[in-house]
Every structure is written in C-alpha cells, then in structure tokens.
Design brief:
The C terminus is likely disordered. This protein has about 450 residues and is of the alpha/beta class. It folds into 3 domains: about 230 residues, Rossmann fold; about 40 residues, no CATH class; about 80 residues. The strands form 2 sheets. Strands 5-6-7-3-8-9 form a 6-stranded mixed sheet, with helices on both faces.
Length: about 450
C-alpha cells in the first residue's frame, strides 16, 4: 500500500490563541488519507470539519500536532512554494463558486495557470478541452452572470482541475444547487476520482452524497468521532475487517447522520421491537411507496414489487402480506383525496355545498376503521371532531383526547387503544392530503 497523501497527527487548531476569546476548534485529530480516495468530512455545523479542511488547504496553521501533504509540511513553505502548492498540488471547489463576473468563462477557468506562466494560447486551448469535458464548452465566451447555478459550479469544477492537481478539495459543492445540478456535480467528482485517480475530499451536509465516498470521517465537537468505510466500494485504505465490522449501524448512519452510536443502537432495537422489516427493507419500501404516491405504479404493480425478492428490487414479502400492504396504501391515498379537496377549498376561503359531504365521508372512513358500534350521538361527535381537526381548530393530541374522553363528559367515549389507532390513521389521511407544493396547503 502507498503512503498516505495526507497525514494528520494530534492536530489542534485554536482560534485567538492567548486571548480572552480563545477557542479550541479541534482536539487531537488523527487521520490518514490515501491517494485516489474519495473522502467526506461530515458532521453538524461547528464540528470542526471546515477547520481541518482549510488547514489542509494551507490557510489555517495548526496550533499543535502535525499535518503533512505528500510528505511535506505546507506551513514550512516559502510564499512562492505555497502558491505552487495551492494551485498545482491542490484544486478547490467552493460552495459560492467565486467566479469573477468581469471575466469570461474561459478566463475564469485558466486563471490559476497565470501564476505558472502558461502562455495565453495554451491556456485557451486547455480551457476549451476541460470545459468540453464538463459539458460547458459552448458557454466559454459567456460571463458568469449569464450562467445558472449548476453551470457556474461546473465551471468551478473545471477551474479546480485546470492545473491537474493531485488533491481536489470540495467545500459543500452542491450547497447552492437544485437536485438535478447537484447530481451532475457529484457525478463529475466521481469521474475525477475514478478516471483521473485524484484524491477527493469533500465537506457535505447531505447524507445522500456519502455513498460516493470510500470513507466518511464523522466529526463532532472538534473531535473525529468515527470513520465509516463504505461497504459498497473497494477500499484503498487498509481496513481491518475484524476491527471494523460492517453492520446495520453503517446503514443507519446514512439515514440518521447526526445521531451518536448509542442513539443508532437504540433505533436498531426499537425497530426490532416494532417492525418485521430490517432497515434495508424499510429503505427499499420507501422508494417503492414513493412510486405509488407519485402515481407511477398501480396498486397491483406495487403488490408485485413488494413480493419480489430483495436482490430483484423488491422486499421479499409473501403475496398475501404484500397485497394487504398495497391495499392499505391504496385505501389511504384514495381517502386522502377528500381531505385534499376540503383543504384546497378551505385555504382559499371558498366555502361550498359539498363541505358537509366531505366531512361525512372522512368521518365514515374513521368509523369503518374502528369497526365497533357507535351510537348516533357518538357519530355526530366524531363528525364534529373530524371537522375541527381538518379545519385546524384542534391539534392531533386534542383530537385523540376527545376521542377517548367519556361520553358523559362530552367526548366520543372510545377506548384508549382505539383512540390512538384512529388518530394515527386519520393523521395518515391528512398527511397524504397535503398539497405536494408546500406544507401550508
């Protein structure tokens, strides 16, 4: 195995050292990053990931410890050698793009080459080549003001690669982008890592992007809390499989990235106590259910998908269970249409003659789910309660409490277990009835 391209040992960085507002940002960070690795620094704001990141870049000198890049301490460099280090050894992509609006796209891309005396003709030729690679060659003569966010970031990616650096640092590279542009940028970083064999180090808050990485360095409170290898990628760093066992915790880390190991263990046990499906199946179930919610598959198709084996894209449920689950989802989605109609009219203050009909139908859905006997007065109270909940006059808790409150005290008077079950069911209908464009409708 090759030597680490970046080696950090007992790294401490303290801001305002010796002053009243002294603040220790990192505490004895140790990490080795190897050539051709794709690494993510991940953690909540203030965890220290940006501090370590910019220390590697050469602009934040350690207060204690050791930081070596390609076997050298960049903070021992002369100013001239530091410029070469920051433009030839390292390329950087910023969240905010930092393109110069008075320069064309081509001139923005080749700007780092000016420091190395590359002639204008060679700069332009190379810029066009690298812009073509990232699908931006047709925009070479434009100015940054005329680009979309995604296009601007792809120009930034091209600029970061113009001097063919060994290490690419990406600081929240998709933080200002929509989902389509984010995917394009992440695929570009993946290509740079896979094809160009560059070491990529990325700061991200997006847990979905961790799947691109070989390893994820989780930081919290200035400390390196844990290092998680991606079991789906061939590791470059030496991983002692006996010491680092790939378990359900690694999957949970992606779903709940800011949870501590103890919290993840709790989630795993709670899932074991309450669910028949493991987290891999639950994640697959979410993706399949999304197809139903988006009306991309029918109820029968959904059931067949659930019945398929996991390695064929399903979750391996037996057909009776799959059909029952599909029917439950279909039932809620259909009933939710009445909730959606009601809320759409209610929000626009467009009162209508069918208002009572929709409330009655929604009430019937809950009564049918109850499957018990209710007196006419209980049904009327149930209907009044449904009206108040869907109109926002009572909360979920108040709805549940009124269901279980005794008949003599003005409630519906049903059992505690049933009130909880019916409240949960009605909330599912309300949730699915919300307009997809926003939470207020």
């Amino acid at each position: 195995m090759s030597e680490p391209i970046i080696k950090i040992k007992d790294l401490d960085i303290t801001y305002n050292l010796g002053k009243e507002n002294e603040y220790k940002a990192t505490h004895s960070i140790n990490m080795d990053i190897y050539p051709e690795e794709f690494i993510a620094f991940f953690g909540p704001s203030g965890c220290g990931k940006s501090t370590v990141f910019y220390s590697i870049l050469g602009i934040l000198e350690p207060s204690a410890g050791q930081l070596l890049v390609k076997g050298e301490n960049p903070y021992s460099f002369s100013p001239e050698k530091m410029v070469k280090f920051q433009t030839k050894i390292i390329g950087i992509i910023y969240q905010a793009f930092y393109l110069i609006n008075s320069l064309s796209v081509i001139d923005n891309v080749v700007l780092p080459q000016i420091f190395h005396g590359v002639t204008p003709a060679r700069r332009r030729h190379w810029a066009l080549q690298i812009l073509k690679r990232f699908g931006m060659d047709e925009h070479g003569e434009k100015y940054p003001d005329n680009l979309s966010g995604g296009q601007s970031q792809r120009v930034s990616v091209a600029r970061s690669m113009v001097n063919n650096p060994d290490i690419l640092l990406a600081d929240e590279p998709t933080g200002n982008l929509d989902s389509v542009s984010s995917r394009q940028v992440m695929e570009s970083l993946k290509e740079i890592n896979d094809v160009d064999k560059k070491t990529v180090i990325m700061i991200t808050h997006n847990a979905a992007q961790l799947s691109y990485c070989h390893r994820v360095f989780y930081l919290k409170d200035g400390k390196l809390e844990r290092i998680v290898p991606n079991p789906e990628k061939k590791q470059i760093a030496k991983v002692d499989k006996q010491k680092i066992l790939v378990t359900e915790m690694d999957q949970l880390s992606k779903i709940f990235p800011y949870s501590s190991p103890v919290e993840l263990k709790v989630k795993s046990l709670v899932n074991y106590l309450t669910q028949d499906l493991n987290f891999y199946q639950l994640q697959r179930l979410e993706s399949l259910t999304q197809l139903v919610v988006e009306r991309k598959v029918s109820n029968d198709e959904f059931a067949r998908m659930l019945n398929k084996e996991y390695n064929e894209g399903g979750i391996d449920l037996n057909m009776p269970v799959a059909k029952h689950m599909a029917e439950r989802v279909d039932k809620i989605l259909k009933q939710a249409e009445d909730a959606r109609r009601y809320r759409r009219r209610f929000i626009s203050n467009n009162f209508f003659s069918r208002e009572n009909i929709l409330v009655r139908r929604l009430t019937k859905y809950i009564i049918d789910e109850y499957r018990g006997k209710l007196s006419p007065v209980q049904k009327k109270r149930m209907r009044d309660l449904v009206y108040k909940r869907i109109s926002g006059l009572v909360s979920r808790r108040e709805f549940k409490d009124m269901l279980r409150l005794s008949f003599e005290n003005g409630g519906v008077g049903i059992a505690k277990t049933s009130s909880r079950k019916l409240t949960q069911y009605f909330e599912k209908i309300l949730m699915q009835g919300i307009e997809s464009k926003g939470h207020g409708h």
